[in-house]
Amino acid sequence: MMYQNEISKEEVATLELIHYEGPICVIDSMEAFEKEIEQIEREPVLGFDTETRPSFKKGKVYPTSLIQISSLEQSWILRVNRIGYPKRLLELLSGEIPLKIGLGLQDDLRRLRTDFQFEPHGFLDLQSYVAAFRIDEKGLKKISGIVLNRRISKSQQVSNWDADVLSEAQLRYAATDAWICLMIYNSLRDSIK
Q1: Is the residue at 4 inside a domain?
Q2: Which range of residues forms the domain containing residue 68?
């Protein structure tokens, strides 16, 4: 299948909105982590993203607040600002399997390395992957528009991810960012079968 190389903001704005509508499990305690990690580990491919509290001061960088992991049917929001980095999470992030699909992973992984010393493996960055399909765009919104013919909302991007309670809008946004990476990957992979 041939994809267009680029898409304008105006074209993206005309596309139907898409967001993750499935169940979201917020993991904010070790008990919740232990309950969910086996299911996460069983998935062969996962969408992946992180969120960090935004900084409005030059040079101020906050540690990672959330790690979002998603299958097609389930999304997990790991509040690493609360639970830290359990050993099995580090094993998941440093293992070749499951394959973890994200976008612009260089910054996410650099921040995670800083937060907790480990070497990530098994990640595929969509920015590199889409280049094989002659897609020149680098942003998730535009790549989604080209590959899925749908647009995603980025309205919660600058949000307080360290808040005591995350809003439904924040949770949907966070889940969508990981899930849409998996949707794009699957669509591209299926197009070459």
Answers
A1: no
A2: 9-188
CA terminus-to-terminus distance, the chain:
10
Q: How many CB atoms are located within 10 Å of the residue 29 CB? A: 12
The string of pLDDT tens digits covering residues 126-150 is 999 999 999 999 999 999 999 999 9
Q: What are phi and psi of 21, to 5 degrees?
A: -115, 0
Model's pTM, two decimal places? 0.93
Mean pLDDT, rounded, for 179-186: 98
- 3-class SS letters over the chain: CCCCCCCCHHHHHCCEECCCCCCEEEECCHHHHHHHHHHHHHCCEEEEEEEECCCCCCCCCCCEEEEEEECCCCEEEECHHHHCCCHHHHHHHHCCCCEEEECCHHHHHHHHHHHCCCCCCCEEEHHHHHHHHCCCCCCHHHHHHHHHCEECCCCCCCCCCCCCCCCHHHHHHHHHHHHHHHHHHHHHHHHCC
pLDDT the model gives residue 157: 62
Is 1 inside any structural domain? no
109 located within any domain: yes
What are the φ/ψ torsions at residue 49 (nearest 5 degrees)? -160, 170
Report, as an integer, the average pLDDT of 47-66. Answer: 85
